[in-house]
Amino acid sequence: MADARSFNHLSGTFVKVSTPAHGPVNAFHEPFWTELGQVFDKISQEPTVRAVVLGSALPKFFSAGIDFSALSFPNNGSDPARSALQLKRHILGFQDCISAIERCPYPVVVAAHGYALGLSVDIISACDVRYAAANTIFAIKEVDVGLAADIGSLARVPKVAGNHSLVHELAYTGRNFSAAEAEKMGFVSRVVEGGRDQVTAAALEVAKLIAEKSPVAVAGTKHLLLHSRDHTVRENLEYTAVWNSAMLQTQDLMDAVKAAQKKQKPKFGPLGSKL
């Protein structure tokens, strides 16, 4: 698990979202989402990490989304073109912070609970495995404040959910939807009875299972799955052949075969270890 205790807004032996300065609802302001990106970029450089669990430190909220009271937009006076260019850079920087979760080479398991609104859906959709407590309430809320979601929900949710009609409905209406509905549409893979503690425990268990596998195989699997999402089948097959022409030379493959022959559980070194 990744330790993020050196940061101000995120802490714990797994990444816990918590911003007490902005109320008891985990509302995001710019330093908060900037730090989220920094945490995952830091985790990406840690060779001993095998999997990451992302959850909230608050008992009733995953996050209420963006703190609009602390939100400011670039403005270049009377020149709308210059203001638009500045705002574009601002949005791209915000997107990059949330995309740090996706570009992290290690699987990220999110444990959602309570209210997970607006930006929460952007964050959760960037994760690899999505669990939700039975009490989770989701919403793609941006239309209710006069904008189209621009940090990832509209880019990722249609690609991870199986019901495009429902995705459109939720994005157009901004209505709340339950964990059960999220599971039915494929947005989450598992609904856990209970609240924060129960869903976090379930997420830690699956992360532990992932951590027992070859880190070379797991990192490659994440990379190839993301490539598959954004490319044709033929393109992904060709890319996978090139990728595995290098990765199949790992010692992990031989260690796994030897362990299987001895009916033992294989042990793999971290990605940074020397063979």
Which key phrases capture this entry?
275 residues; alpha/beta; Lyase 2-enoyl-coa Hydratase, Chain  A, domain 2; 2 domains; 6-stranded mixed β-sheet; 47% helix; globular; disordered N terminus; Ech1-like; delta(3,5)-delta(2,4)-dienoyl-CoA isomerase activity; Enoyl-CoA_hydra/iso
Describe this structure in words.
With 275 residues, the chain is an alpha/beta fold. It folds into 2 domains: 10-211, 2-enoyl-CoA Hydratase, Chain A, domain 1 (Alpha-Beta Complex), CATH 3.90.226.10; 215-261, Lyase 2-enoyl-coa Hydratase, Chain  A, domain 2. Helices cover 47% and strands 14% of the residues. It has helices at 30-44, 80-103, 119-125, 153-160, 164-173, 179-184, 196-211, 215-230, 233-247, 251-261; strands at 10-11, 15-17, 27-28, 52-56, 61-63, 65-66, 108-112, 115-117, 129-133, 137-139, 177-178, 190-192. It has a 6-stranded mixed beta sheet with strand order 1-2-4-7-9-12. The protein has a 4-stranded mixed beta sheet with strand order 5-8-10-11. A hairpin with a 3-residue loop joins β1 (10-11) and β2 (15-17). The longest helix is centred in the N-terminal third of the chain and has 24 residues, at 80-103. One of its GO terms (cellular component) is mitochondrion. Keywords: Fatty acid metabolism, Isomerase, Lipid metabolism.
